[in-house]
Amino acid sequence: MRFQPKLIAAAAALALGLGSAASAQTMRIAHVDPDDWTGSKKGAAAHVFKNIVEGETGLKVEIFPAGALGNEDDLVGQAQEGLTQVVLVSGAMSKICPPAAVLDIPYSFASATIAWDVLDGPFGDALAEDCLARTGLRTLAYGETGFRNFTNSKREIRSPEDMAGLKFRVQPVPLYIELVKGLGGEPTPIAWTELPNALSTGVVDGQENPVGVIYNNGLHKLQKFMTLDGHVYAADFILINEDFFQALSPSDREVVRRAGRVAGTMGRAIQQWTSADGVTRVQAEGMQVYAPTAAELQAFAERAQPAVVDYLRGELGADAVWIDRLQEAVAAAAQ
């Protein structure tokens, strides 16, 4: 038997000794990144959120970082059931709200600022409303995990033709498999925890991740070449259980909304810093970094986008309209 989210949330509140008064309420916020606010985008966002909420309301905020409450799939499940009130997740969102997968269409965003304009505008608002109706989770704001880039140990990649014959570790997600196949590489789904060993032993030649992730996890020490192609812009979703949110007083809801937006902005800022700093650091430690020209990026997009879009249209069915809505929003933001 599956309990209703409201009943579970109420039971959790009693178990935590939360009483009915706002001054006694505790809000749990969880994510899978490190807690260090100086280098962790989700860590920074969580701490800013906590400081604003605790400083301007009677609510208490308890942070559970570094996967203390489970992986992202676990966290969204807990948030839907009301056991954890606020979660910061990225890839897990498309599993519970399929239209969110359109954000992973490769080479959609030419820059982070275009992505911000799209997510903070009508498209992002509409996606948030759609996901709220499907999941019971309100998107307070969009943060940033960053642009994903290819690295490998064999050769410099300047064109899709350079991908041929190279084995790339990808997440065990069909969209990423189609992306690498479309570019002519050989995708190999491997769990994140197994990646360093796979690179060290030559099971795969390369991988793809944001620069900060590559540097902070020492992957640059196992790879020689990086291409800053930015094939996917990964967004963070700052989510709150809707039943919990609506049970707050109007004034507390307004503070929580604002705290979410500031937290998302903070996460973006930290991500931008770690990315720029990461490029300098990996170069200083011997990695060769190549930034493709606009014409070269167009060649990558022409190879990768059709394969992924075709896959998504088949998967989304009637929800494939979100592909067109994203493309329209990006075109408008780029003007």
Automatic annotation (TrEMBL):
Protein name: C4-dicarboxylate ABC transporter substrate-binding protein
Record key words, sorted: Periplasm, Signal
Gene3D superfamilies: Bacterial extracellular solute-binding protein, family 7
Subcellular localization(s) per the UniProt record: Periplasm
Lineage: Bacteria, Pseudomonadati, Pseudomonadota, Alphaproteobacteria, Rhodobacterales
Source organism of this protein record: Rhodovulum strictum
InterPro entries referenced in this protein's UniProt entry, alphabetically: DctP_fam (IPR018389), TRAP_DctP (IPR004682), TRAP_DctP_sf (IPR038404)
Coiled-coil regions listed in the entry: none
Example GO BP: transmembrane transport
Highest taxon in the source lineage: Bacteria
Main location: periplasm
A cellular-component GO term for this protein: outer membrane-bounded periplasmic space
Keyword check for Ion transport: no
Pfam families according to UniProt: DctP (PF03480)
Entry's Gene Ontology molecular function annotations: carbohydrate binding
Signal sequence coordinates: 1-24
